[in-house]
Design a protein that fits this description.
The protein is of the alpha/beta class and about 280 residues long. It has two domains: about 20-180, 3-Layer(aba) Sandwich (Rossmann fold); about 205-280, no CATH class. About 35% of the residues lie in helices and about 10% in strands. It has a six-stranded mixed β-sheet with strand order 3-2-1-4-6-5, sandwiched between helices. Strand 5 and strand 6 form a beta hairpin. The protein is elongated and about 65 Å long. It starts with about 25 loop residues before the first helix and ends in an 8-residue tail after the last helix. The structure holds guanosine-5'-triphosphate and magnesium ion. Magnesium ion (MG) binds near residues 163, 164 and 180.
Length: about 280
């Protein structure tokens, strides 16, 4: 169904893909999943009363889904920034200044968070029954938020991107129904960008060292990045140590005991470890 107040009329309604066509084993299949998931977006966004766009507070603009606007009136879109516990006070303030609600779906203060989100949903629709579809990049915390809102651990949560494979409907109360959806992201993006956004299954990467080097080049002028490497992996990076990303990986490998036959550092494994830890780093690309 196309909403009456939709500014753009879509052409042909996209076909809903079969759940079995979704995959979760590496980068290539992730691209396939994205394309299929975009079909879901079209379908689900038309049918629901509120489109919740969950973004990562550490990279609000980088984790938005602009094409949601094509599938429903802008008034239906409710943008919420999650993972506030990982953000600096400056980031939180910038978000508030933009009028975006900030939450932490893993907060201990569950009832207050639930109330805030529920109020925001209610402010978007006055219908007797409200169907809310939750969209967002993989790993932004959609399923975690669903569990918080329904106060049960019904949606599967994990730090691996693309955990949710199909849509799942949950009843929040007599009035509000929530739909958890697979992660989506717009357009073709560099792998390094997606990793910084937590949208890549790191274990499925065949070239973690190459990706680490890309990230390293990008962050080489950022003191916060080096401080994070030092404190997270228990290494010391003096001026000269910073020039070669392989030296950094070598230090991390030795520190963690990742060694190959003959005592060489296993830099592939070290790179994979760094990339996976980025999901909880206090900064973004
Ligand atoms: N620190 C922190 N971690 C969070 C927060 N919300 C979710 N997470 C973590 O982020 C990871 C991903 O959470 P999910 O709820 O599975 O994310 P999702 O958006 O449903 O991911 P997909 O189903 O893969 O699209 C899990 O390890 C969560 O514990 C938060 O507010 N703060
Ligand atoms: Mg999920």
């Amino acid at each position: 169904m196309i909403p009456r107040n939709s500014s753009k009329k879509p052409g042909r309604s996209p076909k809903k893909p079969k759940v079995s066509r979704f995959h979760n084993s590496g980068y290539k299949s992730m691209q396939q999943q994205k394309i299929m998931a975009n079909d879901w977006v079209a379908r689900e966004a038309w049918d629901c009363n509120v489109i919740m766009e969950l973004v990562d507070i550490r990279n609000i603009d980088g984790t938005r889904i602009p094409f949601l606007k094509k599938f429903g009136s802008v008034d239906k879109i409710l943008t919420i920034a999650n993972k506030r516990d990982l953000a600096t006070p400056e980031l939180i303030k910038a978000c508030c200044d933009r009028g975006i609600l900030t939450i932490s779906a893993t907060s201990k203060n569950r009832e207050a968070t639930r109330r805030q989100v529920l109020d925001a949903i209610m402010s978007k629709s006055s219908r007797p029954k409200i169907k809310v579809a939750i969209f967002g990049y993989p790993n932004v915390g959609k399923s975690t938020l669903v569990n918080l809102l329904i106060d049960r651990k019904k949606a599967v949560v994990s730090p691996v991107a693309f955990t949710t494979k199909g849509r799942q409907m949950f009843r929040l109360n007599d009035r509000v129904f929530l739909m958890d959806l697979p992660g989506v992201y717009p357009g073709k993006q560099a792998k390094a960008d997606l990793i910084f956004k937590g949208a890549v299954n790191i274990q499925g990467l065949s070239d973690p060292e190459d990706v680490f080097i890309q990230l390293y080049d990008r962050k080489s002028g950022d003191q916060a990045f080096f401080s994070w490497l030092e404190s997270t992996f228990g290494i010391v990076l003096e001026g000269g140590d910073r020039s070669d990303p392989f030296d950094v990986l070598g230090k991390i490998a030795f520190r963690r005991g990742f060694l190959l036959k003959g005592g060489e550092p296993d830099t592939q494994n070290a790179a994979r470890l760094v990339l996976s830890k980025l999901a909880t780093a206090p900064f973004s690309a």
